[in-house]
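Entry: ATP12-domain-containing protein
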Amino acid sequence: MFRRLLQTPRPRCLARWNATAAHEGAPVTGTNRAEATLKRFWKTVGVEKRNDGLVVTLDKRALKTPSGNTLLLPQSKQLVATLVATEWENQETLLKPHALPMTSLASRAIDSLAEEKSRQDVCNALLDYLDTDTICFYQDYPPPLVELQAKYWDPLLSWARTKFGIKIKTFDSILGNSQPEETKQKLAEVLLEFNHWEIAAMERATYATKSFIIALALVKRHITVEEASMAARVEVHSQIERWGEVEDTHDVDFHDIRRQLGSAICLLSDV
């Protein structure tokens, strides 16, 4: 089945911190020192109330985003602050940027999606996924795949059609396919109602699953992280049923997609 081979444009927190500092001639201090040393340079991690919000601190210094903004979270996002702090606390000796999904996602929302123009650009990019959406491309063989498609994809398509009053086509070929313009316009209106936290979560979930519809269902809390992951990996699960699991490949992907989707749904939490 056709897959859109796009690399997820996630903020590379550690690399960009140092690159930005070097470009501007700034000293390598605080958080951006992480990229220079690739070692843990702080002793304590904390969460503090500052400026009517929450910040994560490393040795009492507020954590900053790759663009140099303070990673300031609303007080309602205590869970997000706690998860960000936990990510940095768990960097025991050598830094592992891939183990900072919550930090990178919160930074993405703050650095790039707070402005309406930026959100609009992201919305347009996400809508492009409708024409190549994972769950719109069906196969009629082998039987285990057909069963999984019906189990995980059919209900999502039915939900989207009913919830938003739209038409969604399904395809059995990768050539010359597109969704109706009326569908794209309606879903564009849905995205325009999202705040920068929701758009950041939607973006990550779409790129992780290669599916606009799975991501939308997740952000709208219609499905769980587990259900979203299963829907996104229908082909993989079909292959595993037939041929078995490939060690250090299928299992790694299994945990990675849950980490990405889990960070997306946690970003939306107001607890």
